[in-house]
Amino acid sequence: MTTQGHPILIAPQAPEPKVPPATMKHLHPLLLITLLLLTGTGFTLAAGGNDPAYPKGGKWELKKDQHAEFPLPLPAYTDPEHAAYEGDTDSLWEKLKSRAAEQHYFNLIATIIFICAIIHTFLSGVFRDMAHNHEERHKERIKAEGRRAEDKPQDDAKDDVSFRAWFFHTLGEVEAVFGIWVIALLGAILWCHGIAPGEGIGHGVTQMKAYLGKDVNYTEPLFVIIIMAIAATRPIIRLSEDAVNKIAKLMGGTPAAWWFATLTLTPLLGSFITEPAAMTIAALLLAKKFYELKPNPKFAYATIGLLFVNISVGGTLTHFAAPPVLMVAPPDRWDWDMMFMLTNFGWKATVGILIANIIYFLAFKKHFDTLEDPGANSMGHQPKWEDREDPVPPVVTVIHVLFLAWTVFTAHYPPLFLGGFLLLLGFTEATGHHQNDVKMRTPLLVGFFLAGLVIHGGCQGWWISLLLTSIDNDWIHMIGATVLTAFNDNAAVTFLASQAPGLGDGAKFAIVAGAVTGGGLTVIANAPNPAGQAILGKYFEGGVSPAKLAIAALIPTIVVGAALMLL
Q1: Model confidence over 46-81: pLDDT tens digits?
Q2: Taking the domains of the chain in order of start, what are their residue ranges?
Q3: Which terminal residue of the chain has fewer beta carbons within 10 Å of its beta carbon, N or C?
Q4: Nearest Cα to Cα of residue 13 among 117, 143, 138
Q5: What does each C-alpha distance from 216 to 4, 152, 340, 415 come to in angstroms?
Q6: DSSP 345
Q7: Distance between CA atoms of residues 460 and 257, nearest Å
Q8: C-alpha to C-alpha distance for 425 and 446, rounded to whole angstroms
Q9: Is residue 18 predicted with pLDDT exceeding 70?
Q10: How far apart are CA 365 and CA 237, in angstroms?
Q11: Is the pTM here over 0.85, yes or no?
């Protein structure tokens, strides 16, 4: 059953939307409108509007203007002249209680909503099962009542759609969870900043628009959408496949060699092409060379857990590829350059990845013999167009690499990388016989997930920053950051740490080490993880289980954490 008219939240069994080269012209206006809206929004915000509630600089030395009255800037809690001053108490619990009650308990309510969203991700499989049951009953009902497409007189008729099945399937989409719970957060904003203080619902709407429209930065979700789409194009995938193939052949060219080479090379490549691009490439290669061979569930979970951890730490060879490093690296924050990252993080991360890969390789060595023959499923079947092995002309590959490099180079300027993507779409249309369909469903879902996470994460600083700054032991900082990362995006954890005054160099290192170490424990822990789950989720019955993922990622998390802290 298809659900036309719902481009992002797709009903059960709906085929993945594709953009064939022949029809790509229909996508150009949509992306052009998106580009113009983004650019226009920027001009509108720059032109003025409401004055910021908390201007940049001032006695709190804020890094940027904050237009909404919430969340309270962190310095407000330690300013004796501000109403939110938490006093001189040394009790962590008393400070948390004081902060939770601010602005009509908005801090507490926003965090409860965030926790509900996290719990929802663990229940996504339950909702998918409910959707499947409703869909089966719906099929029987429309068959009995003559409401199937074949029962209707029109040639292009469609089956009646089950709204209940669509609804529960939407609730079961992990990538949609945080966006769904934004609705609850909006209700909290209207209540706590409009109705409760007696300002009226109109004031609440104004604060809601200021937060969502001016204070929340959607650059990273947009960047991930575009970098995922480009990294998944056929020329980039064939180039990556050839590079990994050369390494795999040196180790025998077996599925085991492919597995080891992919989980080693692509995470380190993420330091130069960014982690979301590396995750996309690694997941697509593993899907083709490993998951299609039907490994047993235990091995499948071990591999995805290892992948998530390796991608999270593999981007630390440079200062611009890993989101949690990017949050603290600028000169106006901790001033970490490429040489600092390479000498303090990069080589240690490389050693940790190799050790973790070797441990899992030895643990599952016998399982490689149980994988299906790669050619068994293809015997007697015509190869799919998307799986053809004919080479891509070097000039086409080079142009795609240049567009990928342009996207990375302009990662902080959405109009520029969106404009580059529009040009790339035109080029793929002109070279359609060397291309595969451009698939946008997965990148859009991942972007939606990250946008929701950014919106919620911006309201969690009141407790995260307090926990980070109340610790004076580097190992506890590291372990604490690792645990926090499992329940919040690791970039948010390091960003909040960068706002905390008085952190020593050891604490800074430990917090970032913990943030990248814990990036594989959950889907929400690291920005590229939703991309990996979206690509590989179909190989897990009922989708990727959050609990099984955490267990699978635990050993490599300990290994890379020890490598970063002990070497």
Answers
A1: 444 568 999 998 888 888 899 999 999 988 998 898
A2: 114-216, 221-373+390-566
A3: C
A4: 138
A5: 31, 48, 30, 17
A6: I
A7: 43
A8: 20
A9: no
A10: 27
A11: no
